[in-house]
């Protein structure tokens, strides 16, 4: 019974669930990128390279029909695939970081005379004793 409870606690942790969702989303995203590379980028590259089909780029390691072959064209497609996924993830992370970045709360201001940092609520600079906002000084102290 204790083992089952420990397993339930392990599965219910947020990190495990987040990881599972990330893996599933990554698989779906990979299918989209594979389609992008195979259906759009590779044909455009074949236009640039004079109609070369990357899937047919091979080096045969023998002379007969059943000889082993190195399919470097598929490797080129996989590298392009990786670079596109990396580029999209880079822009996604950059955008999320930009949106989630919070500006720090301003808690001080600078005295215009002695350039010391002082609390926002200060009416008089503690360093040079300059009155910063005469309207906020109580009448009995003016």
Explain this structure.
This protein is mainly alpha-helical. It folds into two domains: 2-100, Orthogonal Bundle (Non-ribosomal Peptide Synthetase Peptidyl Carrier Protein, Chain A), CATH 1.10.1200.120; 108-141, no CATH class. Helices cover 53% and strands 7% of the residues. The chain has helices spanning 2-12, 14-48, 72-100; strands at 59-60, 69-70, 108-110, 117-119. The strands form two sheets. It has a two-stranded antiparallel ribbon with strand order 1-2.
What's the layout of helices and strands?
Blueprint: H1 2-12, H2 14-48, E1 59-60, E2 69-70, H3 72-100, E3 108-110, E4 117-119
Antiparallel strand pairs: 1-2, 3-4
């Amino acid at each position: 019974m204790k083992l089952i409870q420990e397993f339930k606690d392990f599965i219910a942790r947020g990190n495990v669930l987040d990881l599972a969702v990330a893996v599933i989303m990554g698989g779906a995203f990979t299918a989209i990128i594979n389609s992008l590379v195979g259906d759009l980028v590779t044909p455009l590259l074949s236009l640039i390279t004079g109609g070369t089909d990357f899937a047919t780029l091979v080096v045969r390691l023998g002379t007969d029909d059943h000889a082993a072959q190195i399919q470097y064209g598929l490797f080129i497609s996989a590298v392009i695939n990786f670079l596109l996924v990396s580029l999209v993830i880079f822009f996604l992370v950059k955008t999320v970081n930009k949106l989630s970045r919070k500006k720090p709360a301003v808690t001080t201001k600078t005295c215009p005379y002695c350039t010391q940092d002082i609390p926002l609520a200060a009416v008089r600079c503690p360093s040079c004793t300059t009155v910063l906002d005469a309207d906020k000084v109580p009448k009995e102290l003016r």
